[in-house]
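Posting this for the archive.
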Amino acid sequence: MDFGISHRIMSIKQEFLKRIDSRDARIGIIGLGYVGLPLGLCFAEKKFRCVGFDIDRKKTDALSKGESYIKHIPSERIRQAVCSGMFSATTDFSKIAECDAVLIAVPTPLNKNREPDMSYIVSTCETVTPYVRAGQLFVLESTTYPGTTDEVVVPILESTGLKCDVDFFAAFSPEREDPNNKEYRTETIPKVVGATSPEGLAVADRLYSQIVVRTVPVSSTRVAEATKLMENIFRSVNIALVNELKVAFMKMGIDVWEVIEAAKTKPFGYMPFYPGPGLGGHCIPIDPFYLTWKAREYGVATRFIELAGEINTAMPDFVVQRVMETLNDHGKALKGSKILILGLAYKANVDDDRESPSYHLIEKLEEKGATVSYNDPFVPVIRPSREWSKYAGRESVEVSNNYDLILIATPHDEYRKMDFSSFSAPIVDTRNIVSGGRAYKA
């Protein structure tokens, strides 16, 4: 690299660092969902002027009014950020040109062949290219396969004629959000940061260090991308293990939940994971397959990941079988039975129903002739989605005794407090929340 380019890079780096330290750096967040919105609020609360971008005008209009559309993010927090002048939301992507740092937090789903769907990342990068200017930092936060930043994001940004690590910087910093976690929130979770150059890493690391308790700089974007996948694959594999043990122990007349409680008393060498009706959320059911797909490019078979996926994907079928057996014990067939599912959200006490196993349960039970209703205090109406559009508009019903079977799918606190002894219908419990042997385990 010649002296002129080297001097230019150092000049951009030093100017950017000064703007970060003085709180003059303007932050843009693309994607105002469960990741982007709390991230933007954190920057605003640390006195950085932050602009949130989203293609959904309903979201930007709500935020402009100080209204939240995510349960665990209170409207008051949004109002304070908006009223302070530090946070605004818009659908006008031309304002990207005014931002020094642009953080991308858009969905990375799988397509129908369980391969990475990069359309959101690609379309986002193509949308911002008219507004890319020298001196900016672009950071991808969306979970993806190793190489995405280098192979997808950077080439699109360089189509402007500007060069990465000469005119602008690029980095990857995986989101680590856990909605409604009372112990950890955005600013208290260490942030992994990788970049395409040492200069870009210095800038990205300095930026995130302003809002989180600790940054964890790594040597490249690929390492940062792989870190996120390792975290989620670890969970997927261990959940699959305990789901498999649940089925095996049930055949032996052993309660897997009691086994787990006993095993977790060991102070070393064991970490408890819990079985369920299947995987849900935007990470665990999806992210492992990003690595599986990429590994095939290198001739590597990721057998643990694929086996874990098979086991976890089979759990709704196992639950349906338990429902059929339970109804049979009570002299009823599944076909024609009225079933109430408790819980549509994928985890307790949140309104996030992405990839929820409850949708698979509804579909499979209805395919077998059952009439299925659901109750969820956090999801009063099913919102439109790509995968489950056929259920859009279906509403949560009251919990009553007018059903042939009650199926507990999500361990909301409200259900834990419920007295199930008054119900005459049999209960199938996938979350171990009904005590006293009142329920059938699944």
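The mean pLDDT is 94. The first helix runs from residue 3 to 21.
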